[in-house]
Write a structure and sequence with these properties.
about 130 residues; mainly beta; BH3618-like; eight-stranded antiparallel beta sheet; 1 helix; 8 strands
Length: about 130
């Protein structure tokens, strides 16, 4: 089920893109496509960081929690940098994407925690449940 998600502030560095859909990728259970509705040629592969990093942490900025809706309904994703070989696929833990598909509102949050990186290697991650 695709549902429109509106990012009031856009994405970090991509503020012109504010409306997206989230859809499943074929033959994938841990990766989705965040597809721009403003530019059909722009989309980001995303994944839930908790499947490979169960203790992942971030904070919403002041005011975001009020706009996004009930916190228990939030979904958290991080962008995936797709590479030619599996051992080079990384996730950006510095800019989680937080959305509520019920309200259709999303935000990208900037994380300042030094223990996270913008290039977390998924191939060598200690996968939760795997």
């Amino acid at each position: 089920m695709e549902k429109k998600i509106h990012f009031p502030k856009g994405l970090i560095g991509l503020e012109n893109y504010r409306d997206f859909t989230v859809s499943a990728l074929p033959d994938q259970t841990q990766f989705w496509l965040l597809q721009s509705l403003e530019n059909e040629h722009f989309g980001l592969v995303i994944t839930n960081p908790f499947w490979f990093l169960p203790d992942y942490e971030f904070q919403l900025e002041e005011g975001q929690a009020d706009q996004i809706g009930e916190l228990s309904k939030l979904e958290v994703f991080v962008t995936v940098n797709v590479a030619a070989t599996p051992e080079k696929i990384t996730a950006n833990l510095m800019g989680p994407i937080v959305l509520n598909q019920q309200t259709g509102i999303g935000f990208q949050v900037l994380v300042s925690n030094k223990k996270y990186t913008a290039q977390y290697n998924l191939m060598f991650a200690n996968l939760a449940g795997g």
